[in-house]
Design a protein that fits this description.
Number of strands: 10
Structural class: mainly beta
Strand content: 35-45%
Mean pLDDT: 91
Oligomer: single chain
Radius of gyration: 20 Å
Low-confidence stretches: none
Distance between the termini: 16 Å
Shape: globular
Helix content: under 10%
Largest sheet: 8 strands, antiparallel
Amino acid sequence: MAVDPQGNDLQSVRIPITGKIAWAPLDAANVVTPADGGDRSLALLTDYPAYKLLGLIKTDGGFEPTAETGDATEFFQDGYKLFGESTLSEKVGLAQSDRSLVEFLTGKTFDANGHIYVSDAFTDKQFLIFREVLYKSGDIERRNGVAQFTEVAQDKDERGTVRGFAVAYEWQRSDLFGGEKYSQWDLPVVAVGS
């Protein structure tokens, strides 16, 4: 359907149908290049083998971005402000809770007995995140950047429901991304004949 006289366009409505999230160690070799990220046929795990998928995402646990600014400095003249440093973060509801995910979240490795010592709910180390959402229209949105956990909460055990993890991470500025917080790609479907 084309844009109507009021400027409304149903093709511009983004309805998520699937997505994925993966992590990799903080290393320049693991940064997805602008060209690779802009290629709709990117095979992340083949092209960048250091990445590990974090598994299934709960149906109601899709990516929830949040942006906040620090305290503003106000001036004597009305209408003038300097805003503090902004934070960009996301939450996601992970459905799986296998050993590899627990090791990633805690920064610990299970021994031969299936045992680890846990002192904190999550690691304070930085890592690379790659996340992708595919929309019903065929559009793709991708982000890749340096992240650090701000919250990890294991879901309660409830009979008949998925027990995964609610995870929040904050994007961090990095020289790997030109001093910015992450790379973002917006890949609309190209109409046939365009």
